[in-house]
Write a structure and sequence with these properties.
five-stranded mixed sheet; iron-sulfur; Fumarate Reductase Iron-sulfur Protein, Chain B, domain 2; 3Fe-4S; alpha+beta; Ubiquitin-like (UB roll); two-stranded antiparallel sheet
Length: 247
């Protein structure tokens, strides 16, 4: 393996650039280095003006999502050695406005997320006498996969529907709604119905599946969407066929 590799990094400085440019840097190629390590080397030793997000370096915070050789990736969990001999192209995530260099504005997602009420909703205000709501392992397994979302935005960058229609609620928001709909302690599924079943909700999804393919935590947002489509369809059928008291 060569001991050097080229990183082609997208640069965009709004105060001086009218469009993004590409800057090349030759950096050390070390077996244990991730793409994020390469960016940190550039930042620390070659060009301190480079802007990008990162925090935990452990695939937990989701902040270091970028496009690596055309694919949405967590750069802390994507290794330079897998792209040898290079070059490696690092760009901001697609489908989001670029703030600067590799930093994107995820405000659209943050505004949509509260609409699906991703928190436990209960009609009872006081906890039970035992101080907790018991839950069986099988009940936890119902929603556990969808609870693994780290809001990295890779699914939005990969989603062809969101690329064409920014009104689409999006994969992560719907998956997080399902996380609570399937929680045995939650009683708020009916409060999420209007948002999830709207035209820009589950029905906008064409089930391409790219969101699940790029998810670093195997959340399977495409599966969450299809599962809720079945629920919504059954609820509509019951409303049509059954007397109100029997629903």
């Amino acid at each position: 393996m060569a001991d050097r590799i080229i990183l082609r990094v997208t640069r965009y400085r709004p105060e001086s650039d009218t469009e993004p440019t590409t800057q090349e840097h030759e950096i050390p190629l070390r077996k244990e280095w991730s793409v994020l390590d390469g960016l940190n080397h550039i930042k620390d030793h070659l060009d301190g003006t480079l802007s990008y997000r990162w925090s935990c370096r452990m695939g937990v915070c989701g902040s270091c999502g970028m496009t690596v050789n055309g694919e949405p990736k967590l750069t802390c969990a994507t290794f330079l050695g897998d792209y040898a001999p290079g070059p490696v192209r690092v760009e901001p995530l697609s489908n989001f406005p670029v703030v600067r260099d590799l930093v994107v504005d995820i405000g659209d997602f943050m505004r949509k997320l509260p609409r699906v009420k991703p928190w436990l909703i209960r009609s009872e205000q006081e906890p039970p006498a035992a101080g907790e709501y018991p839950q069986l392992p099988a009940e936890r397994e119902e929603y556990e996969q969808f609870s693994m979302c780290i809001n990295c935005m890779l699914c939005y960058a990969a989603c062809p529907v969101y690329a064409l229609d920014e009104e689409f609620l999006g994969p992560a928001a719907i998956a997080l709604a399902q996380r609570y709909n399937l929680d045995s302690r939650d009683q708020g599924a009916s409060e999420r119905t209007d948002v999830l079943s709207a035209a820009e909700g589950i029905w906008a999804c064409t089930f391409v599946g790219e969101c699940s393919a790029v998810c670093p935590k195997d959340v399977d947002p495409a599966g969450a969407i299809q599962r809720y489509k079945f629920t919504a369809a059954m609820d509509s059928l019951k409303a049509l066929l059954l007397p109100r008291g029997a629903r």
